[in-house]
Design brief:
The chain has 201 residues and is an alpha+beta fold. It has 6 helices and 12 strands. The protein has a single domain, classed as Glutaredoxin (3-Layer(aba) Sandwich). The longest helix is centred in the N-terminal third of the chain and has 25 residues.
């Protein structure tokens, strides 16, 4: 084959490959929450009202579903603490969601205090928030923007391979990277990972 044609075919292949990669990056828009989500109002463990409309006052919101006695939630306490401390909280909400009625408000407050997790806690006794976000385990993290787009959901990082199986070193910081990317007004490429933890029931 003529070398000129080889070069032409090669150039066309690279162009098509780059076009496919660009389309793939933009082909999967973020999932959009049901419009009713921001109409919900939750209670805090101290029985104060917390309208979810508050989440729209900042650019992003991190919601992490937690259980006080779940070993995985306890293991991630330091990570959650560091994550909030390293993030611009003028632009990002950090919310701890406690699904169900198995734990008392006191147990929730004690858990947050003992493990120094500075998130805003809210209760979800009837699984309204859990159902709309389709959370299944604790801890499970969600990153939302103020328009109700789910920019990321799943594991906080890749520390947990499965319940009871931990990596000695974290190599992927899914939630942290998603927050940083979104704050830079860029596309979050890893939209979903499979979380490992305690089942919500």
């Amino acid at each position: 084959m003529n070398s000129k044609y080889k070069l032409l075919i090669g150039a066309m292949f690279i162009f098509l490959l780059n076009s496919c990669e660009t389309r793939e990056e933009h082909a999967l828009p973020p999932l959009k929450l049901d419009l009713n989500f921001f109409q919900l109002s939750a209670k805090t463990p101290t029985n104060e009202n917390y309208p979810l409309l508050n989440l729209t006052k900042k650019s992003l919101s991190v919601l992490v579903f937690l259980s006080p006695e779940c070993p995985v939630c306890q293991n991630y306490a330091l990570t959650m603490n560091e994550l909030q401390n390293q993030t611009d909280t003028q632009r990002v909400n950090f919310i701890a969601v406690f699904p169900g009625t198995y734990y008392t408000p006191k147990q929730m407050i004690d858990y947050l205090n003992i493990y120094h997790i500075p998130f805003q806690p809210i209760l979800d006794p009837k699984f309204a928030i859990t159902g709309l976000l389709r959370a299944t385990v604790t801890p499970e993290a969600y990153l939302l923007d103020s328009l109700g787009n789910i920019l990321y959901s799943g594991s906080i990082d890749n520390q947990m391979m499965d319940v009871g199986k931990r990596r000695t070193m974290v190599t992927e910081h899914f939630l942290r990277d998603a927050i940083s990317t979104a704050l830079d007004h860029k596309i979050v490429k890893t939209r979903r990972t499979q979380p490992a933890g305690c089942f919500i029931e």
